[in-house]
Amino acid sequence: MPQPPFPQPDRARLLPENFRFGVATSAFQIEGAPTADGRSDSIWDTFCRVPGAVAAGDTGDLACDHYRRMPEDVDLLAGLGVDTYRFSVSWPRVQPGGRGPASRAGLDFYDRLVDRLLAKGVDPWLTLYHWDLPQELEDAGGWPHRDTAHRFADYAALVFDRLGDRVHAWTTLNEPWCVAMYGYADGMHAPGRRDRRAALHAVHHLLLGHGEAVRRMQEQAGPEHDFGLTLNLTPSLPATDSSEDVAAARRADGLGIRLYLDPILLGTYPEDVVSDLAEEGITLPVQDGDLDIIATSIDVLGVNYYFSERIAAGRPVREEDGPVTALGWPVTPDGLTDLLLRVSREYPAVPLVITENGGAFTDATLEEGRVCDGDRIAFLAAHIDAVAEAHVQGVDVRGYFVWTLLDNFEWAHGYGPTFGLVSVDRKTMARTPKESARWFRDFLRAQRQPQV
Ligand code: FCB
Asked: Is the minimum distance from the CB of 174 to ligand 1 under 6 angstroms?
């Protein structure tokens, strides 16, 4: 583990002055309070009750108790010196059941959050959907069902109506690939379905919901508003030059990256993916006009980057001897530079922001109040450098948000893996900033010093 003095991202100095640095969280992973103020169940509440679905039987019932501790958490993140906080709104909290009028009490929470952020000089960056679909909408068919896209647009309009006067950055979806594939094909995530056709239908309806939501919000928006969505872009490179590996990598890239970027930014689905799917007997449920809606112009593309991987004949292969995180994810910062260069080359019209990057590491508590996580510091420094390198090479990249502020509910892994800059005692809920939090704060201070 690296010891102090910790690595510094030397190239960060080359980033533009208005480059954003932030931290990101999501509602279900931190809020808790599942029934407060009329909130209804989301698919994750239900999924957590399925025996064996989540490690150790963990649930989001308490999470980080952020619903009650929000003021303290805002003070904590403002103390890091970030200029932006990316959070998500819980759909079943602000529109229980996913239809009908907004819940005033639910919206009040986000109203208070936004006001407190602004009072501390932190810009709110709001994500509308970070995986917590109201259970009633899943019961009615979920994302494989077209109506869910329309419901999502209605929900977006409700939230915008209340917060659009103060929130300028709006992300519709977080990682639609994970929503569709983990949720409906692999069953590893809520709602735990295992139906590949349903998953591909979900992809189309997620993208349609994104486009409809942007259009609805744009009707009420001004020039100060930016709209976009966040994709998890995991580069898939062929493990060898063999035609099998090259073909497998093309398929993985098609299903993981181009199936999203092409319709959103080019207005078409990639032909090779459509024909691969046809071979499986799957047709995307596209209706007239859908692609125009999906390709509604956006102002920013959020990129979540964790690692890149090599693909051999259909399955990921991990470099045997390279460093990995506590979840076994390879540490591949150069892949981030390459990814940003590629996206900006193939889809040049849209500015990029890294809306999540971080790692799960085994933190060492040396003594009360001191949590050492040098591996996280090295990880973040290398990835910030990788972003700066992409900027130097001409990519229009405008921000970098660390995943995440607090150790939290890591989906099917429960509370085991820790990604936070701040640790959370599971018994007392006490927050302890790790060394990485101090490092990030000092880095941001230095970054803001006038350059000589
Ligand atoms: C991303 C999710 C985020 C978190 C990180 C580790 O895929 O968007 O909620 O779980 O992975």
From this structure: yes
